[in-house]
Amino acid sequence: QVQLVESGGGSVQAGGSLRLSCAASGSIFSINAMGWYRQAPGKQRELVAVIPRGDSANYADSVKGRFTISRDSAKNTVSLQMSSLKPEDTAVYYCNADVRVSYSRTTVYRYWGQGTQVTVSS
Question: φ and ψ at 73, to 5 degrees?
Fold first, then answer.
């Protein structure tokens, strides 16, 4: 099994910054993509940023220019640097990883972290 653990959430004033981190552990052969999603009250979970292995990052339009995703593939970690935060960024943020679990099995499974709360006050 694979476990993802997020850290770094908290409460900040509008215009402030936070850095979220996520570490994957367990039965991992390789990870294709790692990313961050968020879910605000009354809203569906949405993609914030994703970074495939060996490829460029993709961002939601609402966070472009403010958030930066980074990855250390050797350590199976991903981070999200959030700057110029706005109240509308308030949500539970979830780490995601698409994991190949063994050499003999090519199937890729999607795993999720438990979520970390980000609250931005005006």
Answer: -65, -30
- Residues 85-98 have pLDDT tens digits of 999 999 999 999 99
From the list 112, 108, 94, the residue with the least C-alpha distance to 45 is 94
Residue at token pair 């294709």: 32
Q: Compute φ and ψ for 88, nearest 5 degrees.
A: -70, -5
**pLDDT band at residue 119, thresholds of 50, 70 and 90?**
very high
Spatial distance between the Cα atoms of 15 and 78, rounded to a whole number of angstroms:
23
DSSP for 21-81, please give it: EEEEEES-SEEEEEEEEEE-TTS--EEEEEEETTS--EE-TTTTTTEEEEEETTTTEEEEE
Q: Are 37 and 44 a contacting pair, CB within 8 Å?
A: no
21-50 pLDDT, tens digit per residue, is 999 999 999 999 999 999 999 999 999 999
List pLDDT tens digits, range 97-112: 999 999 999 999 999 9
Residues 6+ positions from 77 with CB-CB distance below 8 Å: 21, 22, 23, 24, 71
